[in-house]
Specification:
With 126 residues, the protein is mostly beta strands. It is built from no helices and eleven strands. Strands 2, 4, 5, 6, 9, 10 and 11 form a seven-stranded mixed beta sheet that branches. The chain has a four-stranded antiparallel beta sheet with strand order 1-3-8-7, with no helix packed on it. A hairpin with a 6-residue loop joins strand 4 and strand 5. The protein is globular, with a radius of gyration of 14 Å.
Length: 126
């Protein structure tokens, strides 16, 4: 089992930056990876970024590439999502997720992730 605890959401102005954190605890396997998703009201959960824990391979959704940055701190078992130039349309609940089935070609599918954080609200005012 893996437990995920998120922090860092809040209310910001358009153009501001924000960093989300997700601390993980529990047993992980050799094919472990973590990701960030978000879900806005009335919309489906969408993939933002993912990172393979061993080796640090990173993938981004095209629409956040260059604006969002995923990173990890191995010593703290924590993954981060740095979000720059925030827009009103970035308003959503942001979730971190983890899986021991981190498979290339599947990492953007929320169904691939077995463990989820509680979600943290990000609200961007214009």
């Amino acid at each position: 089992q893996v437990q995920l605890v998120e922090s860092g959401g809040g209310l910001v102005q358009a153009g501001d930056s924000l960093r989300l954190s997700c601390a993980a605890s529990g047993r992980t396997g050799s094919n472990y990876g973590m990701a960030w998703f978000r879900q806005a009201p009335g919309k489906e959960r969408e993939f933002l970024a993912a990172i393979r824990w061993a080796g640090g391979t990173i993938s981004y959704a095209d629409f956040v590439r260059g604006r969002f940055t995923i990173s990890r701190d191995n010593a703290k078992n924590t993954v981060y999502l740095r979000m720059n130039s925030l827009k009103a349309e970035d308003t959503a609940v942001y979730y971190c997720a983890a899986t021991n089935r981190f498979v290339s070609g599947q990492i953007s599918r929320w169904q691939q992730y077995d463990y989820w954080g509680q979600g943290t609200q990000v609200t961007v005012s214009s």
